[in-house]
């Protein structure tokens, strides 16, 4: 396979074999019988049992099914589709206390969080999108009431969006995992690949227009089916 134009070169975010003495998940020591395997998503090193799943990683430009660790597998297969489909959250204006809907989603190339105003009769507005690039998202937390997801930006500013506790928890966990993968890849790239770029958003890895188109189509389907569900619940007739 040709990684970044360097045939047979180790991808920059892979932990070198010499730095991995045991499996990053279960701690089993590597040796003649227990081989090392790299998760193509996060770049960490695992035994076969802890990395036996495979999935395509379109967001990283990998169309074919590749080896991933358990955590990355469940992110790609169950958490990522939730973020791409988007969902309805509420924001409360600080001075007036007015509540208004926001449709929140992850961008198709998985590089930013996007939100638009929600209309109960027509769904998400298509104009006036606001975006938060993941490179500016420092960490994600959940407010004490369990209903508000808090997005902490570089520089200290915080955005909060409210929903049912289960939805908030699912989004917080999925976004935290996404940020963790990005940070882990970035730190491995710096440590082992000599890269000093501040962040490597997924969009950079998606070079082929075909993959980009496929990502956009996938998101359109997820978003429109979820919006149709929400609108049907709000407008029963
Ligand atoms: Zn293991
Ligand atoms: Zn992984």
From TrEMBL:
UniProt keyword Zinc-finger present: yes
GO molecular function: ubiquitin binding; zinc ion binding
PROSITE patterns for the chain: ZF_FYVE
Keywords, comma-separated and alphabetical: Metal-binding, Zinc, Zinc-finger
Listed GO biological process terms: endocytic recycling; receptor internalization
Gene Ontology CC annotations of this record: early endosome
Domain FYVE-type residue range list: 17-73
Xref: Pfam families: FYVE
Keyword Zinc belongs to the record: yes
Protein name as it appears in the record: FYVE-type domain-containing protein
Source organism (scientific name): Chrysochromulina tobinii
């Amino acid at each position: 396979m040709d990684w970044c134009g360097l045939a047979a070169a180790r991808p920059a975010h892979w932990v070198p074999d010499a730095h991995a003495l045991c499996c990053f998940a279960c701690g089993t020591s590597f040796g003649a019988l227990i081989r090392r395997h790299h998760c193509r998503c996060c770049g960490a090193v695992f035994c076969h049992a802890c990395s036996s799943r495979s999935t395509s990683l379109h967001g990283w430009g990998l169309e074919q099914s590749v080896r991933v660790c358990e955590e990355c597998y469940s992110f790609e297969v169950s958490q990522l589709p939730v973020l791409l489909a988007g969902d309805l959250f509420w924001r409360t204006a600080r001075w007036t206390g007015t509540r208004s809907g926001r449709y929140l989603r992850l961008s198709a190339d998985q590089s930013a969080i996007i939100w638009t105003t929600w209309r109960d009769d027509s769904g998400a507005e298509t104009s006036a999108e606001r975006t938060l690039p993941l490179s500016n998202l420092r960490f994600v937390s959940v407010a004490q009431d369990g209903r508000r997801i808090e997005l902490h930006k570089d520089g200290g500013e915080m955005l909060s969006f409210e929903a049912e506790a289960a939805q908030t928890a699912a989004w917080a966990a999925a976004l935290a995992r996404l940020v963790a993968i990005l940070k882990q890849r970035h730190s491995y790239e710096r440590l082992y690949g000599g890269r000093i770029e501040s962040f490597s958003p997924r969009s950079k890895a998606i070079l082929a227009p075909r993959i980009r188109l496929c990502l956009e189509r996938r998101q359109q389907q997820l978003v429109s089916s979820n919006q149709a569900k929400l609108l049907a619940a709000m407008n029963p007739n």
